[in-house]
Design goal:
By secondary structure, the protein is an all-beta fold. The chain is globular. It has no helices and eleven strands. Pfam families: 2OG-FeII_Oxy_3 (PF13640). InterPro entries: Pro_4_hyd_alph_FE2OG_OXY (IPR044862). Residues 20-94 form the Prolyl 4-hydroxylase alpha subunit Fe(2+) 2OG dioxygenase domain. This is Prolyl 4-hydroxylase alpha subunit Fe(2+) 2OG dioxygenase domain-containing protein.
Amino acid sequence: MPSNVKTRVLFHSRRLNIYLVRYSQGHKIVPHVDMVSEGRLYKFNCVLIKPEAGGQFICEKNIFNLFGRFILFRPDLYQHRVSKIERGSRWLLSFALIQN
């Protein structure tokens, strides 16, 4: 069975990671908080392609969320999830920055 998530690492360093991620139909992300060993974690997600149905990003608190396409949040502090993708796929460009 093929994976519902395909991740390509575009850049990786100690403080900054950039990923291109494709979530396929049927996938969902359960509520969670991302753990970091030290510092503060910020994520800036750019939704390149929204699914035709489902796949909504839900977070307890965003720094900002512009049209559900450009989202800045603290995944180390606030629970977040993505609802089940009912139809289509979701493409995401994700920037993860750790600030000490």
